[in-house]
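Co-fold these.
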Amino acid sequence: MWQQVELALSQSAHRVLFQLASFLPGLVAMLLAVLFLAAIGAGLAALLRRFLFSIKFDERFARNSIAAITDWAPSHSPTVLIARTAFWGCVILGCIIGISAFDASYSSNSQMSVVLLPYLTHSVGAIILLTLGNLVARFLSRSVLIGAVNAKLTYARFLSLGVKWLVLVLTTAMVLDHLEIGGTVVDLAFGILFGGIVLTLSLAVGIGSRDIVTRSLEKNVDRPLDPIPGDPDYKSPTEPLRHF
Amino acid sequence: MASTHTNITPTTEAPAKGSLLVSLASLPANALETTLANLALAFPSQSVLVATPDPAPQLSSGSPLRLLPYTQAAPSTTPWFLTAADYVNTFKLVQENGASACLLLGAESQSLHPDAIRSLAAAAASTDLVVSHYNLRPREGLVNSAILYPVTRGLFGSSPRFPLAIDLALSPRMAERLAASAQKFTAASQGDALIWPITEAVIANYSIAEADAGTRTFPQPSADLNTLLTQIAGSLFSDVDAKASFWQRGRSFKPGRSFPQTIDPADGSSDIASMLETFRLAYTNLHEIWSLILPPNSLLGLKRLSVMPPDAFRIPDALWSRIVYDFILAYRLRTINRGHLLGALTPLYLAWVASHLTLVNNGTAPEAHVQEIAAAFEADKPYFVSRWRWPDRFNP
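Predicted complex below.
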């Protein structure tokens, strides 16, 4: 019996090692493609940067354009923007070549390529989604915070956090859905969480605004008659502020 | 005020070269008639060409005004300031009509006294850029007092009290220079962008003067404070960024002529309380954002302000100048999104207004305080230059 156990173990170990051995070249090919293209990208970016600095591209561009691209460019430098675009373009090309090399190293019947390859591409999409979602969440929360403070809302921070978590929850649900993790459990959980956050924010805004509405109504109903000039309570009307 | 009967000749022949051109903003019919009457009073014996984008009124023939209806080459939809479109239109008119000088009168120009118009034109005879000096009350023109005038005086050494005045007199070369700056914006369909005539004139080494425009009605913007402050301060900060190589060189301030100021008592206790409340709320909620922009010393100053009693609320002039300079630097470095940066400036500006009004209520002459602020901006220019050149290394 022990011989059979030993045989089963050695056969399964051999199978797994064989799978791994056939998996590794594809993986190494993918990594090499990414690294090689990244190195080419870095070299190309350096060459481009040197060339564009030598022809004073930034100064010429600033003279002839308003602010649009200069605003978007890192360090206000279109040269740096072009160099970074070239570098990341090469990296992405390397990823694409690497993934197709990974795919080519397997036969079409291989289960590993059917399962792993789409998951790799979905992972890239998920990482991009997560990054974008985080950026949008931070931007929106800050916008809401500043806007609410300037509108003199005392619950500004709460509103800002609520918006941030709304976007983050939405992003997480999209990422999990993209990776096909969790299925309906994730959908349900997202729905409950999102709805809960929206309800909480609505209650907060409603309760927070209650005092404003009450004061506004009281002002119209119980308003005493304005004192007239000559009255001891009379105050000359305050001149409005003119900021401009 | 003048009667509505004005001697105007609708122009049918080419005007004499070298005449004065007056370019008006779009005005309602009544306001246009009043303006034309004031112009006739201001220039009773001088041939003046009046350009208006509105339909010319049919009035009795005679002299001395010649009316020139025109179609705006670049339409402006912002009546409360002079925009890039206004300067492009003005230069086109100056060029086509060979004017020797041009008066650019903004919206609500019917409230300008004929003497004010005459003094603008008189100064334009020998100066490239004449800027109006208005007689404002303590509660008016606060953004100009807090930011626009101190920054232009501190960095560019210019004396005009109202850098964004809406009534100007321009020489043909000044009009050309402003139109050249404005062309970049109108070409990109940004006709409502602001141009800063003072900084353009200083850089070109053109002569600048101020003319007493007395009191005037100003068009009130329909947008809220936050939107307008973002637009105006953003434009100024962008202009400072663009002209960095100029203002970093040493400039000394040459005081202009002094103008009489009326001092009215200001009572704004309810406004002050509201603005202080906004500032304290902002200090609690925006402290993290301010800490990305302001150095530790300024944050400490704000912390002290947040606990100051309302009666004694006073922003030190040096603190305010450094706050504004740090915001300009953050605008340039894009420390945070520019819209957020300018939104975060609004509560600090309101705190300054509260401080200013508190001082005025306590008997300080408002103009004296504004001059002290401007002097503080001048004194802190080396601080700003150091931070501009070494933003990471110099961070007190």
